[in-house]
Amino acid sequence: MNRTKIVAGNWKMNKTFDEGLELAQQITNKAKNASCKVVMASPYIHLHALRQVIGKSDTVFLAAQNCHHETKGAYTGEISVEMLKSIGVDYVLVGHSERRAYNQEDHKMLAKKVNLVLQAGLKVIFCCGEPLTVRQDNAHIQHVKRQLRESLFHLYESEFDRVVIAYEPVWAIGTGETASPEQAQEMHKAIRRMVENSYSEACAQATTLLYGGSCKPSNAKELFSQPDVDGGLIGGASLKADDFMAIINSI
Ligand code: 13P
Known about the structure:
eight-stranded parallel sheet, TIM Barrel, alpha/beta, binds 1,3-dihydroxyacetonephosphate, 11 helices, 8 strands
């Protein structure tokens, strides 16, 4: 199956404006001929400048790490999807475990964000994944199933071609502990089955599933070689152009 392959870098709360610009310039130049789509999810303050750096590209794309769940109004300090759209953002990350944990983002709020992103014509990278205790209880697949059912599976099948799902086990994020290729494949296969059961086999086969959690140059190739792993969502290793490029070139 020729699914779209994606390697996305989530910079999280890193890089001053100048540092971010330099990183984006390096990645845009080096990734010109990448064999997958490359996405940079920078902090909000970089997005407008990064749009100019990337220009029009079929390979390199721009993502926001979050958006607000209401369309506009008295929400001091927040950023709406329409604002992101107005500066040419392509993707929005929704449901990252750090936002679920530190900003109390629940299933209902995430469903609202997904709806707004898709209504604006943008694409969503929806993050899911279980904490360590849930995996220890062997309830990881049920946990992810609930996350998808509550925030994503209300969509129409026709909207699903603008949905990317990123599986990020919480215990593997920023810890240096990666899911084994077998653990990643088990979950990705299960997620694809969930999409098939909610929509269709064709929809499931066409949906891009990314793995995230301590993915680095040394383990990317093995992870990406799993049949249901279509790329990665990279945190720490996306902050250095050479490491990020090595991961991109592992696909
Ligand atoms: P690390 O690659 O730093 O573990 O982060 C993964 C992640 O959370 C990407 O969204």
